[in-house]
Write a structure and sequence with these properties.
CATH architecture: 3-Layer(aba) Sandwich
Order of helices and strands: HEEHEEHEHEEEH
Radius of gyration: 20 Å
Structural class: alpha/beta
CATH superfamily: ABC-type transport auxiliary lipoprotein component
Low-confidence stretches: 5-29, 102-119
Number of strands: 8
Shape: globular
CATH class: Alpha Beta
CATH topology: Rossmann fold
Largest sheet: 6 strands, mixed
Distance between the termini: 52 Å
Mean pLDDT: 77
Number of domains: 1
Amino acid sequence: MHRALLLPALLALLVSLAGCVSSGGSRIANAEDTVDVIARVQDSTADLLANTRGLAPDQPVVVATFVNVDDLHESSTFGRTLAELFASSLTRAGIDILEVRMRQSLFIEERTGELMLSRDIRRLSASHNAQAILVGTYGRGRTTAYVNVRLVRTSDNRVLGAASTAIPLDRNTRAMLPAQW
């Protein structure tokens, strides 16, 4: 009698586990799941600030649009959203964030946002008196977007802190990425 119940129980367990693939203890999203990107960014910001050295609390930081790691001249809704979420999270942590889009001296490309390349850091620093710039990249795997973020000191381009996170791709995150991805 127990064998008759064991087989259906094992099948039910296998079916329920088929929808959950785990990697390092974190569940990879199914199409129906919604990933809490805000919570992941907040965790990544805490990690970034925990390992950052040399950031003056009374001097501003500029946040640049996150770019595609395969093409540093390209961003997306995903990259612009990441920049916004990191700016909010840093502000909540007490970091003085300078909103550069309110200034006319920074040209903002309509489709890419305020891209920040290393050659522009000194120019931006001088015009906005920023001590550091938060820069980031993202790359897409099959089921996950990998996000890397760094705080770069503007005076000498030294990395003051860095963090990385993996964001499972759900319907929302996929919709923010370019169609060809």
